[in-house]
Structure formats: C-alpha cells, structure tokens
TrEMBL record:
Keywords: Cytoplasm, Glycosyltransferase, Magnesium, Metal-binding, Nucleotide-binding, Purine salvage, Transferase. The gene is hpt. The keyword Repressor does not apply. It comes from the Bacteria. This is Hypoxanthine phosphoribosyltransferase.
Length: 174
C-alpha cells in the first residue's frame, strides 16, 4: 500500500499548476521569444518538464539527460554519473535545464560545468523545488518554483526508492 508512508501534502495540484504557468512566463521573457533547448533531467523532472513546455509560447526543442547521484539511497553521494547524455548538439543554443529538486546542489554544479563546456549561447537552470538548507555548494537556480524545508519529498515525478512518482501532488515522507 503506497499511501502508508506519505507524511503530508505540501503542495496540491492547483498550487503546482499555477506556479508552472508563472515560471513559463518568466522563462519566455528571459529568452525573449527565441528558441529554447529544454533539457529535462530524468527521471524526477519528467512530469514538471512535460507541463512546463506546454506553457512555453516560443520554439522549443526537448532533450533529456539522466544523472545518478543518489542511486537507491536517500542521501546524495556527491558523485555524479551520466547515465544518459544529450542527443542534440547545444553549441550556440539557448539552453534551459529543468530539474525537479535541488538539495545539496552537487548534481547541478557538476551539470552546469559539463554543459558550459559545450559552449551554449545562454544556460539557465530551472527547478520546481529547492531545499536550501541542504546546500553543500553555492548553486542557485535562475528559476525556482518553491522553497521547501529539509524533508524528503515525493510526488509529481519525484520518487522515494522509485515509488510515488505518480502522485499528482507533492508530499513529504514520514
Ligand atoms: P542534489 O545533488 O543533492 O542537489 O540532489 C539532486 C537530485 O537528488 C534531485 O534531482 C533529485 O532527483 C534527488 N533529490 C534531492 N532531494 C530529494 C527529495 O527530497 N526527494 C527525492 N529526490 C530528491
Ligand atoms: Mg533528479
């Protein structure tokens, strides 16, 4: 029974949907209507990126990367491994990285360096959720949906040992 370990709802479907629309507006303005190469970070950002791009009124190309820092553990190891690299060439392009949640920031710090080396025109980072108390480096996203306390978060694509990604709302684990 998957419901047993859900600690409490933090953000409901309407709060998330409203925020996604607001973020899409800000992103459109930042890129001034130019084409954006959106990179969704698997698997956690799959639902967020799908919702977000449907509110972007500008040309969009979509790609995915899969990174591993946690494995099956609940704590970030700080060691980032690329499990799936980009399919597209991003040199000279506007790039928007779309992440589900930033905690230690180590994954994003690594990714930022990795993508910067590919010489994109503009690189911006967007995260739906941020847990600033967990930070171990000074990464700040360019677009942040919600700041949350230092709890283990699930739902709306975000998992706990591969469970709960299908919850339409965001909750914490008991
Ligand atoms: P960071 O490197 O510690 O910033 O962690 C980045 C990745 O860890 C995120 O993309 C998530 O996939 C995962 N993560 C961080 N915090 C949580 C959480 O509270 N619940 C589930 N996954 C998390
Ligand atoms: Mg992730």
């Amino acid at each position: 029974m998957q419901e047993l370990n859900i600690g409490g709802k933090l953000l409901d479907e309407e709060q998330i949907a409203q925020k996604v629309r607001e973020m899409a507006k800000e992103i459109e303005e930042e890129f001034e209507g130019e084409e954006i190469y959106v990179i969704g970070i698997l698997k956690g950002a799959c639902i967020f990126v799908s919702d977000l791009i449907r509110h972007l009124n500008c040309p969009v190309k979509l790609d995915f990367m899969s990174l591993s820092s946690y494995g099956m553990s609940l704590e970030s190891s700080g060691v980032v491994k690329i499990l799936k690299d980009l399919d597209m060439d991003i040199e000279g392009k506007n790039v928007l990285v779309v992440e589900d949640i930033i905690d230690t920031g180590l994954t994003m710090e690594y990714l930022k360096g990795y993508l910067t080396a590919r010489k994109c025109k503009k690189l911006k980072i967007c995260t739906l959720l941020d847990k600033p108390e967990g930070r171990k480096c000074d990464i700040v996203a360019d677009f942040t949906g919600f700041h949350l306390p230092d709890e283990f978060i699930i739902g709306y694509g975000i998992d706990c040992q591969e469970n709960y990604r299908n919850l339409p709302y965001i909750a914490y684990v008991k």
